[in-house]
């Protein structure tokens, strides 16, 4: 049985703890590896390595850091296939979908290649006679990233390239469910010339996370995962004085107005609801059909949901793979049952799906529920599986009201051919990322990514300019280089400009 080790100070290491967790093959239901689970002492070892590395990495020139990022970018292209197949094997998503997350993650490295521009400070000449003022930003120190299972390459890439390019050193605690991609990333950083100890990977679960959250040498924590854990991480790490950005779960609504091209909307809703088996934080999980749109939309959606090819992620003909664990499959099935009990109409039922030759896999097919109402559990909770619910609304006001009343605020979309409705929607909706005829509006890397309400705890969105702000702190220098003129007297009153 392959044992996945930590990566500390430039090398794979078993560290101290011998506790392990299984790594499943979701397509077969069999265990394919085990991953070490760090004890607090193992976390301390990684943080010490990162703290030591910070002493010299903080002094590295911007050119040195940028060159590492350019090389990493090329290595991510060269190793795209290896990474995508590793993700497909442990996560279960189809290989092409895994390639997509690698490309989107790579865009953050491309942004980090331009860190010299992002870190440019400001300069004001002659703010007072003979006095200049300028500002620049400095790295924080050792920073930590704690990431979810659903994007084992892209989500960590939202964090570490920016942190490292800004001069910090990094300890990543990836999901223990699909840990291998992070070790590949560590190897690629080493090949790119990153000094030992700047990027470290500690595998583990709650004890490892808890140690990161209260370790005195960790300056900042970036977290992405479910809302209860995001809230916990935010509370615990801020209580120990750290800077925190904690991105949580989602219930993403897509509004379909009667004037939308329904075939276009249904195609995009199907892909956005069932791609990656619905295990995307930006997956569309609730369609809000306005007015007469619902009756026209449901049969088209049903036809498309039934036509999705479900199979193992490594099979090139698969469009959708299994979910991550048997528990996840059973949770989704439970929500279908509870929705039906609460009065929803099960239009397409994925519970009985069988994938020949993969009977033990964690498969559940695309599922469509109509006439779902806001008080139903299947609407209120994040289900995180291939389940699309349709809620009917009388008009755009009601649709916007529904979205704004929802505790989550990650992503949302509107399908319409009317510019005025789209503009009203984008201005009035209380959600961080909005798509207009774009179902999954994940911002490009030179913008920042983040939700509102219970989808994000903390003040900054992740990567892009807000990421640079998060991983650095500002310094302002007021400077005078006078010819010594002893007639200028030191003043005891507060200095004013003159
Ligand atoms: P999760 O919250 O279970 O786990 C995330 C991380 O927290 C993992 O590294 C895990 O080991 C750790 N963790 C889990 N339980 C913990 C505990 N009790 N104490 C301390 N640490 C703990 O999330 P997941 O199931 O891996 O990922 C799916 C969730 O992530 C969904 O809710 C999804 O919406 C969310 N997500 C959000 C975004 C976003 O950008 N907002 C992006 C991707 C995923």
Protein described:
- The protein is α/β, with parallel strands linked by helices and 498 residues long.
- It has 2 domains: 3-248 and 455-477, Aldehyde Dehydrogenase, Chain A, domain 1 (3-Layer(aba) Sandwich); 252-436, Aldehyde Dehydrogenase, Chain A, domain 2 (3-Layer(aba) Sandwich).
- It has helices spanning 40-57, 62-78, 80-91, 95-113, 115-118, 154-165, 180-191, 206-214, 227-239, 262-274, 293-307, 326-341, 377-380, 396-405, 419-428, 464-470, and strands at 2-4, 6-8, 11-13, 20-25, 30-36, 122-128, 131-139, 142-146, 169-173, 199-201, 218-224, 243-247, 252-256, 284-290, 345-348, 367-370, 387-393, 408-409, 411-415, 433-436, 452-453, 456-458, 472-480.
- Helix 1 (40-57) crosses helix 8 and helix 3 packs across helix 4 (95-113).
- The longest helix has 19 residues, at 95-113.
- It is globular and about 85 Å long.
- It starts with a strand and ends in an 18-residue tail after the last strand.
- The relative contact order is 0.14.
- The model has no long low-confidence stretch (mean pLDDT 97).
- It binds nicotinamide-adenine-dinucleotide.
- Nicotinamide-adenine-dinucleotide binds at residues 146-151, 155, 173, 175-176, 205-206, 209, 224-226, 229, 247-250, 281, 382, 384, 410, 451, 455.
The CATH H-level homologous superfamily of the largest domain: Aldehyde Dehydrogenase, Chain A, domain 1
Which topology of the largest domain does CATH recognise?
Aldehyde Dehydrogenase, Chain A, domain 1
Looking at the structure, what is the overall shape? globular
> What Rg is obtained from the alpha carbons, in whole angstroms?
25 Å
Structural class computed from helices and strand pairing: alpha/beta
The largest β sheet comes out as: 7 strands, mixed
Roughly how much helix do the residues carry, as a percent range? 25-40%
- Order of strands across the main sheet: 15-16-17-14-13-19-20
What ligands can be seen in this structure?
Answer: nicotinamide-adenine-dinucleotide
What is the rounded distance between the termini?
74 Å
CATH class placement of the largest domain: Alpha Beta
Total of helices: 16
Average pLDDT, all residues: 97
Compute the number of structural domains.
2
CATH architectural label of the largest domain: 3-Layer(aba) Sandwich
Report the strand count: 23
């Amino acid at each position: 049985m392959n044992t996945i080790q930590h990566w500390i100070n430039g090398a794979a290491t078993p560290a101290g703890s011998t506790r392990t967790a299984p790594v499943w093959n979701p397509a077969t239901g069999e265990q394919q590896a085990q991953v070490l689970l760090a004890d607090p002492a193992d976390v301390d070892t990684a943080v010490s390595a990162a703290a030591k590395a910070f002493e010299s990495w903080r002094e590295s020139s911007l050119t040195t850091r940028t060159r590492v990022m350019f090389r990493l970018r090329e290595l991510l292209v060269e190793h795209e296939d290896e990474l995508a197949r590793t993700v497909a094997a442990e996560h279960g998503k189809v290989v092409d979908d895994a390639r997509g997350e690698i490309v989107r993650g790579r865009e953050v490295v491309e942004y980090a290649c331009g860190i010299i521009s992002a870190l440019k400070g400001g300069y004001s000449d002659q703010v007072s006679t003979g006095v200049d003022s300028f500002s620049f930003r400095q790295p924080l120190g050792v920073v930590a990233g704690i990431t979810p299972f659903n994007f084992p390459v892209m989500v960590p890439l939202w964090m570490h390239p920016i942190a490292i390019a800004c001069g910090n050193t990094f300890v990543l605690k990836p999901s223990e469910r699909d840990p291998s991609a992070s070790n590949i990333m560590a190897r690629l950083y080493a090949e790119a010339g990153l000094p030992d100890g700047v990027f470290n990977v500690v595998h583990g679960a709650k004890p490892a996370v808890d140690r990161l959250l209260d370790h005195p040498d960790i300056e900042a924590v970036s977290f992405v995962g479910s809302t209860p854990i995001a809230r916990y991480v935010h509370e615990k790490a801020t209580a120990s004085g750290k800077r925190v950005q904690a991105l949580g779960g989602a219930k993403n609504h897509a509004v379909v107005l009667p004037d939308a091209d329904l075939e276009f909307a249904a195609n995009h809703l199907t892909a956005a609801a069932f791609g990656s088996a619905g295990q995307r934080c930006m997956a569309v999980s609730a369609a809000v059909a306005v007015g007469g749109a619902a009756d026209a939309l449901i049969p088209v959606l049903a036809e498309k949901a039934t036509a999705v090819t479900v199979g193992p992620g490594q099979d090139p003909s698969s469009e959708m793979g299994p979910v991550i664990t048997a528990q996840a499959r059973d949770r989704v099935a439970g929500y279908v049952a509870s929705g039906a009990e609460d009065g929803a109409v099960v239009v397409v039922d994925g519970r009985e799906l069988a994938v020949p030759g993969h009977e033990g896999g964690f498969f559940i097919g695309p599922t469509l529920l109509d006439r779902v109402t806001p008080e139903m559990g299947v609407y209120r909770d994040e289900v995180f599986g291939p389940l699309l619910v349709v809620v009917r609304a009388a008009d755009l006001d009601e649709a916007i009201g529904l979205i704004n009343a929802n505790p989550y605020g990650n992503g949302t979309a509107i399908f319409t051919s009317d510019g005025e409705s789209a503009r009203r929607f984008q201005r009035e909706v209380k959600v961080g990322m909005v798509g207009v005829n774009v179902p999954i509006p994940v911002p490009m890397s030179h913008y920042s990514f983040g939700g509102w309400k219970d989808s994000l705890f903390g003040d900054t969105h992740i990567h892009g300019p807000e990421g640079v702000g998060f991983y650095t702190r500002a310094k302002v220098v007021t400077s005078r280089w006078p010819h010594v003129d002893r007639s200028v007297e030191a003043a005891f009153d507060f200095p004013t400009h003159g």
